[in-house]
Amino acid sequence: MKTLLMELFKDESGVTAIEYGLIAGLIAVAIISALNTLGVTLGNTFNKVAEEVANAG
């Protein structure tokens, strides 16, 4: 029993998978935040252009 527990504590494959999962999650959150900010900025730009075009006519 003691040997089995020692082997489980030495096995780090699950820990590595969890670390990769956390890194992927953080990258996904960063990408989503960046795209959200970009979307808001683009929306504001298009609205400003639309207003300028509407006022020019």
Question: What order do the helices and strands follow?
Answer: HH
Low-confidence stretches at least 5 residues in length (pLDDT < 50)?
A: none
Shape: rod-shaped
> What is the rounded distance between the termini?
84 Å
Structural class: mainly alpha
Structure overview:
The structure is a single chain. The chain has helices at residues 2-10, 13-56. The mean pLDDT is 90. It starts with a helix and ends with a helix. It is mostly helical and 57 residues long. Helices cover 93% and strands 0% of the residues. The longest helix has 44 residues, at 13-56.
What's a quick, concise take on this entry?
This protein is mainly α and 57 residues long. It has helices at 2-10, 13-56.
Element layout with pairings:
Blueprint: H1 2-10, H2 13-56
Keywords:
57 residues; mainly alpha; 2 helices; rod-shaped
